[in-house]
């Protein structure tokens, strides 16, 4: 696959949702829809038969010689975080198109090949990540998704309806394990391990699981000029103490690979002359081992109630999601390692702190994840960058892996 095609298409897709700082293409937004239409055209031009399922996943397919054989699948996502980069998810989509184009030219394989553009992989809009692959693997329901609404109060049901999708038909998107032989995703690392080890390919053994909560702090809005310091119930002061407590608790477990972040915070009414009456925060805790995440969450709950007491402000914690780390398939790990050795590409086995659709697909089939370096580990940031050489090596390994699985 000529590199210029990939570099051009990365730039082209980055135009959808490009804003003053980076790319903002939130799940099911107009920019996301435009990017999906564009990629669907690329997939058709590459000879893939296209269908879209009831959660909006786009599935491109090349038939094999054995109509009954299970599909060998690759895929990733097009949606981004706010002010994100050009490579997160996109490398796996364009890499998948490149791989399937190459394999189509080589001639039919036994198993059909599929490329899936998953809906809503980023958790920003609804607090739940990888919605498309969750639905496809039966890991969520219309009942759960029907309760979701975004920060502007738009419900998930409404959003699907606007795209001509009916939340009550989500069950039709669920794939049976026997339909898929294996799933392999190509993605940028979004960390510095590969760069530090001077390796080109990371072969993932386990994917960290996020536990996500909404923390609501209730104080009393008051006049900032007339309310004495000892008569305040300042929600933002309590929230600040909670954020510091999260940081401290996560640091204590850092040696076990735990990370804790409060990445979003809303202050109400948000006026400089009003003591904040209400704060809403989003908490993201991750780790490779479930017990340390649970321990973290418990300690955060204790800290939150202690702060609420001391500051005389009410606090509520809503669990948005709490997953277990996903182990990926050992045979796939060995297959990919053998291909790296064959192609003379430096690789290492590692874990992924970032969540991916592969972790959901691991619930119904053998799942693999191939990572390539991104410069200084920068990601979820306009400066995200992966070199054409590393992207090409990732595609070469992905192509050969799909070939070995489907031949
Ligand atoms: O949040 C994540 O781990 C990824 O960006 N979906
Ligand atoms: Mn991401
Ligand atoms: Mn991603
Ligand atoms: Mn992903």
Automatic annotation (TrEMBL):
One of its GO terms (molecular function) is metal ion binding. Pfam families: Peptidase_M20. Its cofactor is Zn(2+). It comes from the Bacteria. Binds 2 Zn(2+) ions per subunit. Zn(2+) 1 binds at residues 77, 88, 187. Zn(2+) 2 binds at residues 88, 122, 380. Allantoate binds at residues 212, 273, 286. InterPro entries: Amidase_Cbmase, Bact_exopeptidase_dim_dom, Peptidase_M20. The keyword Calcium does not apply. The keyword Phosphoprotein does not apply. Keywords: Hydrolase, Metal-binding, Zinc. Belongs to the peptidase M20 family. NCBIfam families: hydantase, PRK09290.1-5. This is N-carbamoyl-L-amino-acid hydrolase.
């Amino acid at each position: 696959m000529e590199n210029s095609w990939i570099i051009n298409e990365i730039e082209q897709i980055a135009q959808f949702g490009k804003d003053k700082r980076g790319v903002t293409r939130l799940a099911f937004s107009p920019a996301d829809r435009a990017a999906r239409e564009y990629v669907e055209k690329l997939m058709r031009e590459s000879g893939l038969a296209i269908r879209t399922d009831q959660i909006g996943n786009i599935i491109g397919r090349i038939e094999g010689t054995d109509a009954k054989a299970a599909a060998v699948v690759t895929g990733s996502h097009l949606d981004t975080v706010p002010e994100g980069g050009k490579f997160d998810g996109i490398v796996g989509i364009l890499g998948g198109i490149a791989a399937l184009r190459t394999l189509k030219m080589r001639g039919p394989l036994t198993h059909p090949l599929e490329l899936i553009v998953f809906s809503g992989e980023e958790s920003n809009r609804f607090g739940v990540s990888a919605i498309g692959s969750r639905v496809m693997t039966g890991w969520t329901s219309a009942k759960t998704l029907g309760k979701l609404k975004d920060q502007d109060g738009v419900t998930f049901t409404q959003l699907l309806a606007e795209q001509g999708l009916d939340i009550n038909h989500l069950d039709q998107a669920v794939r049976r394990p026997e339909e898929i032989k294996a799933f392999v995703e190509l993605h940028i690392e979004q960390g510095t391990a590969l760069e530090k080890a001077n390796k080109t390919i990371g072969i993932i053994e386990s994917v960290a699981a996020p536990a996500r909560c909404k923390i609501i702090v209730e104080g009393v809005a008051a006049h900032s000029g007339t309310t004495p310091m000892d008569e305040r119930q300042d929600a933002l002061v309590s929230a600040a103490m909670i954020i510091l407590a999260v940081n401290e608790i996560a640091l204590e477990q850092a040696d076990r690979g735990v990370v804790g972040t409060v990445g979003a915070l809303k202050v109400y009414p948000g006026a400089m002359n009003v003591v904040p009456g209400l704060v809403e925060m989003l908490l993201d805790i991750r780790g490779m081992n479930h017990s340390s995440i649970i321990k973290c969450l418990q300690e955060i709950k204790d800290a939150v109630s202690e702060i609420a007491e001391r500051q005389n402000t009410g606090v509520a914690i809503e669990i948005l999601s709490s997953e277990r780390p996903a182990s990926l398939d050992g045979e796939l790990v060995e297959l990919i390692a053998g291909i790296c050795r064959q192609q003379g590409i430096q690789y290492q086995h590692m874990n992924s702190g970032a969540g991916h659709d592969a972790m959901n697909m691991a619930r119904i089939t053998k799942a693999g994840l191939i990572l390539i370096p991104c410069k200084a580990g920068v990601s979820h940031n306009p400066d995200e960058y992966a070199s054409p050489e590393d992207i090409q090596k990732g595609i070469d390994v992905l192509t050969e892996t799909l070939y070995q699985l489907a031949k």
